[in-house]
Amino acid sequence: MKKAKKTLRYNLLLVLVISIFLPTLVNAQAASNETAILKLHYFNINNNVQYLLLESSTKKNKVFTPQKNILYKVYLDTVSNSNLISSIKTNDAGKAKMFFPPYLKSHWDKSSTHMFIVMKGDEEVLTDYYITKARLEIDTTTIDEIKNITVKVSKEDNGKLFPVPDVEMKVGIQRLVGVLSGGDEETYTSDSSGVVTVPFTKINMPGDSLGNLILVAKIEDNETLGNITVEKKAKWGVPMVLSEDFFSKRELWSTRFRSPYWLLFMAYAIIIGVYSTLIYLIVQLVKTIKIGKQGPPPLV
Amino acid sequence: MNLVWKIKQRSCNKIKKYKVENNNPISRDRIINDLVPKQFGKRGMIWTSILILICLIGAYAYYRQLTKGLVVTNMRDYVSWGIYISNFVFFVAISLVGSLITAILRLADVHWSTPLTRIAEIIAVSAIVFASLIIIVDMGRPERFMNLFLHGRLQSPIIWDVTVITTYFFISLFLLYLPLLPDLKILIAHRKPSVNKFHKLYVFLGSFWKGHKEQFRLNDKSINILCVMIIPVAFCIHTVTSWLFATTYRPGWDSTNFGAYFISGAFLVGAGAVVVAMYVFRRYYKLEKYITEFHFEKMGKIVVMLGLLYLYFNINEYLIPAFKMKKAEEEHLRELFSGSYSIMFWFAIFVGMLIPIFILITKKGRKPLPMFIAGIMVVVGAWFKRYLIVTPTLLHPFLPMQNVPESYKHYFPSWEEWAIAMGSLAGALLVITFFVRILPIIPIYETIIEQNEESQKDIAV
Fold it and tell me: Would you say residue A244 lies in a domain?
């Protein structure tokens, strides 16, 4: 009985010690661990411009810190000078953007799938980033007075294009800070023929001065296709002519040339009133000086 | 009618009693000898050297700010108006004393304030000069200062402030200069040019003053016009300064009461500064015959009245928002009442207002030394009050501070800011010191005239 009590006491003590020190140990371990994070993104804009974006950061205590001024070399498929895409330093945000040099065009055209290798000094820090060349097409159709946006996604294989099913994408209108979905869903997935058809429900959207909206289809961070964006102008919006009246009004928020009349009147009335009095006082002082030049006053 | 006669009689009795105490009248030569500027003694030189040293440290700190940018300060995105703007408001407040002592009391035909007018005007000019300079110090790119005039919008209260400060500076300078003219004649004639260090300056400023009757008439007229004009301009300068805050939608600043609140505070700190100056000059230059206990008694009563007025506006300013405790105001007010600014807040209320009022409300408290202590308390309390008006509000915006570096959420001035702020305070004191060295602190001519009038009245009685 006594032995059992003693064992229980030791166990309780052990639990207590562990419960006190374990979080500290875990935190200390976590604090000492700093993980380097390197991400590479492939972008294809309007099936025309391709570029890579490299992001370099470290993670410590759940805080991400961008790595500035780190030199990276990015290669296409193999590490050789002829396949060097760019030798580039990260900026203050830990990012580096690079375009494909013209001398890699023939190599790029040779294959449908390419691998990107990132070197930091002599060390290969990223080797498993593959991209399959793909094409995104956007078109507009009107059936029974219903406007539709049709997007087709296809990838290249041996120089030929094949539809890609099950690709998630955003389809909508390009607004100032993002893509506003053209239909009712936030995102859409391509069908077996690689096509997405979105009935356009956003009517009376403000467009440019001619009523043009920029329709956009966007694939984001796809494992094999990367980031692909395609845009098309459509005259589906309401022409927006900015009213100059708002800015031409004489209001408190207007430019300095359009101060309200009441303010101008008040301000200038005060300024003129005060400064004309000051000028009057200066005139009085000048008179005083002139009197003084006549010599001392006569003795009475 | 009877009551008015009784009050006049009591006032006359008091003046007679004060004259008897001070063995008046004083002879003309004695007045001139007592009041002409004197060379600094050892203490004066030490005082000036200390001020110059503080100014030099401030200048070095400003050099660092100019070369490295505003990053040397601890002002960031949220607290973009720090100790510099607190100092600016403080200087503007102190400068208001010129209109109180010189203009209001003169227009009210109060003659006892004559020995204090020059002190008040010197303080006003020095303070307004440094109020203007500290605004330039607060600018990250001071070389672009002219853009304020070239591209400024009349709709902006900043333009109003710049305009009214410039105007107030000119008027204060005029009000310092015009009453000085008869004194300059006395100063020129008093000592030989070889002995008088500032003879050339006096000649330059006032050699044209010959004492013609017409000169006196023109001068008196000009001074009266200035006294009338300076009051609305002085009210404008402080109201507009308060509008810099009140037109900005922020907790603690969103008040329709701000103009009156600032003006009452400015009168209080200005009067406090005059009391301190009165005591120091009286003691250092042995001016007991001119700045008497009677003057302290009167100024004490004025400070009590102004203290109560400012207290009233403070209650309005804090009680009503605290009663409603709107969510956005709540955090700001709690920080002031019981949070990280509470010590400073209650210090400003007690030391800057309540304790001086309690000291000065008694007759014994209106003696020179207690009044000097109360004056210091008012001035120091007022400086902290300005800090409290500016900084805590900026740290409590309506929208929460998110995704910003930790340093953005707090503010404590860097050493450069402290050095520049203290340098500007020392600079203002230095300007006052130089004025005092060059000009008579108490108007000589007016004192002689008043003494003659009183003695003639006494003879007539």
Answer: no
CATH number, position A81 = 2.60.40
Judge whether residue A158 has pLDDT over 90: no
Q: ipTM score of the complex?
A: 0.86
From the number of C-beta atoms within 10 Å of its C-beta (0-12, 13-18, 19+), residue B269 rates as: buried
pLDDT confidence of residue B5? 46
Q: Do B153 and A289 touch (CB under 8 A)?
A: no
B397 has a chain A CB within 8 A of its CB: no
| Averaged pLDDT, A34-51 | 90
Q: Which of A84, A107, A132 is the last residue of a domain?
A: A132
Residue B302: Cβ within 10 Å count: 19
Q: Residue B126 corresponds to which tokens in the numbers above?
A: 């020095």
State which residues of chain B have pLDDT below 50: 1-5, 7-8, 11-12, 15-21
- Alpha-carbon distances of B342 from A63, B308, B387, B396, rounded to whole Å: 34, 21, 13, 15
Q: What is the mean pLDDT of residues A73-88?
A: 92
Domain spans of chain B? 33-247+415-448, 287-400
**pLDDT digit string (tens) for A135-154?**
999 999 888 888 999 999 99
Domain ends where: A106, A132, A158? A132
Measured between CB atoms, which of B155, B178, B219 is closest to A263?
Answer: B155
Contacts of B207 in chain A (CB under 8 A): 292
> In terms of domains, do A126 and A70 share one?
yes
Collapsed DSSP state (helix, strand, coil) of residue B110: coil
End-to-end CA distance of chain B: 23
What residue numbers bound the domain in which A72 lies? Answer: 35-132
Would you list the DSSP string of A96-113?
Answer: EEEEPPGGGHHHHHH-SE
Same domain, A93 and A141: no
Q: Which amino acid is at A107?
A: H
Contact criterion met (CB below 8 Å) for A129 and A122: no
Look at chain A and report how many structural domains it folds into.
Answer: 3
* pLDDT tens sequence across A266-280: 999 999 999 999 999
The reply to whether residue A254 touches residue B155, judged by beta carbons under 8 angstroms, is: yes
In a domain, A124, yes or no: yes
With bands split at pLDDT 50, 70 and 90, how would you rate the model's confidence at A203? confident
